[in-house]
UniProtKB/TrEMBL annotation:
Lineage start: Eukaryota, Sar, Stramenopiles, Oomycota, Peronosporomycetes
GO cellular component, one term: membrane
TM stretches of this protein: 380-400, 412-433
Molecular function (Gene Ontology), one example: ATP hydrolysis activity
Protein name: ABC transporter domain-containing protein
Database matches in InterPro entries: AAA+_ATPase, ABC2_TM, ABC_transporter-like_ATP-bd, ABC_transporter-like_CS, P-loop_NTPase, Plant_ABCG
Tagged with keyword Membrane: yes
Record's signal peptide: none
Source species, domain of life: Eukaryota
Localization per record: Membrane
PANTHER family linked to this entry: ABC TRANSPORTER G FAMILY MEMBER 11
Organism for this UniProt entry: Globisporangium ultimum (strain ATCC 200006 / CBS 805.95 / DAOM BR144) (Pythium ultimum)
Keyword vocabulary terms for this entry: ATP-binding, Membrane, Nucleotide-binding, Transmembrane, Transmembrane helix, Transport
Family: Belongs to the ABC transporter superfamily. ABCG family. Eye pigment precursor importer (TC 3.A.1.204) subfamily.
Alphabetized Pfam families for the sequence: ABC2_membrane, ABC_tran
Length: 444
């Protein structure tokens, strides 16, 4: 099926002339008039330890494991902040907490947008989160994927023309126009590259035009060239549209490091540094750790705070030095200034992201799954052949037999029918596994 034919199928009743004017609440979300500063102060996150494990180790079953401890930071509109650190330093945990995706454990501290305490419903209307793994259906083209995501996430009042404009804008912002009609691809078919898949995942979240962009490992598994291009696109969004972007990243190159406005360095859940990128090297120099000339500052600092291997610095001294530094005090002062109205503009009182109606979501999911089945011949047609063969086999069992049906015949037929339904059920399992990769809350 062609892309044009697919788009024609998406003309639901919601695209009627009576819905040409979008509702005011959607206009507020799709074209936010305010820019947002995201700040977090003294964030501490802990989870209870398993009782059996605590008893075996001689500890108290009621003890808690501290994942993050007194972490503070700030990212203003138009800034791109990188959260770096060795593996296991709780980078993703911090990002998930900022994105309001952690609903278990004990969370202390404050998270604020423009100096106002974060409200979950309001925050989800202005923020989008890009997960580390690309959850995309490989049988659809890039443009079709964006159209489906828009239909599932945007309000029912949005017309077909508005969705088309939004999709084309997202394609242009993420540099995907050249591959818009190329299938995403999977293990069974060739498609777009890994870097293009990452950009497509970001384009899906850009459909709602968020003011705050949170990305977990947007460059994971990509080469240096693809990493540079993706971070460059995010930096452009921040610079040109005033978005607030925070991303976790592993070992950025020197060129990528230079694109960030702020750097947050974590070690075992504690902040070793949080401030402007240009102040990071001078700060570590004051603590007695000079970054060697011609070295990558990001890699040097990650190795410095990695306690898993030899050659690391005095991490406790580094944490204490940052807590007592002028950078940390200035950060706290700026967060306090935001709270008393120093950060402009202030959050609008009414922000609400209306969702698509349940009926529209049902129709969209039905169309998507039907097309996905038809475009997977290795799955769809094998099932058709299997069902036809089974039906023929059981249908011919009693062919040319006498008209007298015994109890044994009925038992065989009863068993055959039930076995047929079992085969049908097992054949559907792979589709449940595929759909399971779309967690609740994603635009897809």
């Amino acid at each position: 099926m062609s892309a044009s034919a697919f788009n024609d199928m998406l003309a639901f009743e919601g695209d009627s002339p009576c819905s040409q004017t979008p509702r005011p609440d959607y206009v507020e979300v799709s074209s936010p008039v305010s820019k947002f500063t995201l700040s977090w102060s003294n964030v501490t996150f802990s989870v209870p330890t398993k009782a059996k494990k605590a008893v075996k180790s001689g500890g108290d079953p009621s003890d808690k494991r501290v994942i993050l401890k007194n972490v503070s930071g700030r990212c203003a509109a138009g800034e791109l902040t990188a959260v770096i650190g060795p593996s296991g330093s709780s980078k993703t945990t911090l990002l998930d907490i900022l994105a309001d995706r952690v609903h278990s454990g004990e969370l202390e501290g404050s998270i604020e947008a423009n100096g106002t305490k974060r409200d979950p419903s309001t925050f989800r209307a202005i923020a989008s989160y890009v997960a580390q793994d690309d959850t995309l259906l490989g049988s659809f083209t890039v443009r079709e994927t964006l159209v489906m995501a828009a239909k599932l996430s945007l309000p029912s009042a949005v017309t077909k023309a508005m969705i088309h404009d939004r999709v084309e804008t997202a394609l242009g912002e993420m540099g995907l126009r050249n591959c818009a009609n190329t299938v995403v691809g999977d293990v069974f078919r060739k498609g777009i590259s890994g870097g293009q898949k990452r950009r497509l995942s970001m384009a899906i979240e850009l459909l709602s035009n968020p003011s705050i962009f949170l990305l977990d490992e947007p460059t994971s598994g990509l080469d240096s060239a693809a990493t540079y291009n993706i971070i460059k696109l995010i930096q452009k969004l921040c610079r040109d549209e005033g978005k607030t972007a925070i991303c976790t990243i592993h070992q950025p190159s020197s060129l990528v490091y230079e694109m960030f406005s702020n750097i947050v360095i974590l070690s075992a859940g504690e902040a070793v540094y949080c401030g402007a990128r240009v102040d990071m090297i001078p700060h570590f120099a004051l603590t007695g750790y000079d970054c060697p000339e011609y070295s990558n500052p990001a890699e040097y600092c990650i190795e410095l705070v990695n306690a898993d291997f030899e050659g690391h610095g005095d991490i406790r001294a580094l944490i204490t030095a940052f807590e007592q530094s002028a950078i940390s005090k200035a950060l706290s002062a700026q967060i306090d200034k935001d709270r008393v109205g120093g950060a402009k503009p202030i959050m609008e009182p009414k922000y609400h992201r209306e969702k698509a109606s349940p009926w529209r979501q049902f129709l969209m999911l039905l169309q998507r799954n039907s097309l996905n089945n038809m475009r997977n011949p290795g799955i769809f047609w094998v099932r058709v052949v299997m069902y036809t063969a089974l039906a023929t086999m059981f249908g011919t069992i009693f062919l040319y037999t006498n008209k007298n049906v015994s109890d044994n015949d009925i038992s065989v037929l009863f068993f055959g029918v039930h076995a047929f339904f079992v085969f049908m059920s097992v054949a559907v399992v792979p589709f449940f596994v595929e759909e399971r990769s779309f967690p609740p809350g994603t635009s897809e």
